[in-house]
Every structure is written in structure tokens, then in C-alpha cells.
Amino acid sequence: MVITDNHMHLYNHLRLKALKEFKKAGGTHVFLVSLLSSHYGILPSSGKDFVQIFEEHVKLVEKANEIVKAYAVLAVHPAEITILSQKWGVDRAVEIMKEALEIAGKFVEEGKAVAIKSGRPHYEVSDYVWKSSNEVMTFAFEVAKDVGCAVQLHMESYTKEGMMEVAEMAKKVGLKREKVIRHFAPPAVKEFEEIGIFPSVIAMGDNVKKAAELGDRFVVESDYIDDRSRPGAVLGPRTVPRKIKELLKLGYDEDFVNKICKENIEKLYDVEL
């Protein structure tokens, strides 16, 4: 049985041991997402500085594949705009982030990664930074359309209006809405279906159960951060396998699990599990 964690990080705590825990709990497939430039000890002055980050992440994913089946997602995290603008100003930060997204797209074209990550800040920012973040996110949609990949989005707290706005941005550049994945999504499966964007439901509390009650158009994630200062945050590496197995105990069959952990994943990322 395939059990997929759609969004996990390996950083400075358990690293590959986290995947051994994931596998022991029943996990089989994982999408590993790169982190902020600051996690790699880099303050980019150009998009080219992300090459080192992406290459390091791809090497980590190669090692992860010795344990489970792992795929690379390359992030230009929306919080980069805050970090970079402190040094270079907002306009240059936008340029650097766009350059980095183009590079991430090339990694996808070369088969080194399957998706990119973008979004907009989840914390309060000025109107200009918000507008600039939307510009970067729209550019990420353009890159994804050009290279034919999905985009995971890190965003502010969920509102239907906010998601509809994002869906419209994707539509304007010609990116299919179902290729836009809301990371850390609530179990609002019906609303997401109406909007067209795909939810990656955070496996917190009874979210997975609530999502399942509403349908099977979702995937599941732990958003495990692997930070030694917060060892179990956001959720531990065994969480997704446990929550999927709980669905089986509740009477959902393996076909249902196959839909959310395999079929949906294959459609989103154009991979074969």
C-alpha cells in the first residue's frame, strides 16, 4: 500500500533517520521540500546563489531514495522577500526570487525535481511587499506553466476569497488550477474542488478524517520541519502513515487510500508511483 507525505523537510535534526521512522510507520513515498536560504547559511545576492541550495537539496533527495521513494520540490520561500529586502531592498529581492524560480524550473526540466514552491507571506507585511509577493508568485505560475510542473504554495491563513484570488492569478497565466497545490491546507475539500486548487491537508488533529468525509480530492502532509530546536514540529515524520491507517480503521478501504496517496499524487506531479 502506498502512503505518501506530500510535504516534508529534512534539516538539522533527524535528517535521514526521520525517513527511517516514516518507513517504519508504513510510509512509502515522500516529497522533500528545500528550505529558506538562511537554513543553508547563504544570503543570496543573485538568483544564481540558489543553485548551491538546490544542488544540496537534490543530493539529499538522492540519499533519501535509499530509504523510501523521495522526490525533490525546490522552494523559493515567500519569506525570502523579507530576508533579502533587508539587505537589497524589495525590488532587488523580487528580481533575485524570480531568477531563483527560473533556475528551479530548469532543475525540473532536467528531471532533478518534480515541482517548485512559492507563495506569499503568512505574516503581516506592507502593501508594497504584498503586491511584490503576488508578482513573484505569478511569476512562479509562469515558470510552472512553461516547464509543465506543479507549484506548492506557502500562504497566509486559509480563506476561500484568498484562494479564489490565487486561482484567478494562475488562470491568467494559463496554468491549470489543479497544478496549484495549497500546502498546509485545512480539510475544506469541497471548497477547494469548487475553486480548482488542490489541497495538501495538514495531518493535524482530525483533519484527515474530516477531509475524507468530504471526498477524496486531497493529498496529505506532515510539514515536518526537522529542526532540533522544535523536534516534533510541525508534525512528526510518523504522523501521515498513522493518520492514513486510522482511515482504514474507520472503514475507508485501500482504494480510497490509493486515491489520495497514489492517484492524486501521480496526477499532480506527472510521476508514476
From TrEMBL:
Pfam family, one: TatD_DNase
Gene Ontology MF term list: hydrolase activity, acting on ester bonds
Family annotation (InterPro entries): Metal_Hydrolase (IPR032466), TatD-like (IPR001130), UCP004961 (IPR011589)
Protein name from the UniProt record: TatD-related deoxyribonuclease
Signal peptide: none
Organism, as annotated: Ferroglobus placidus (strain DSM 10642 / AEDII12DO)
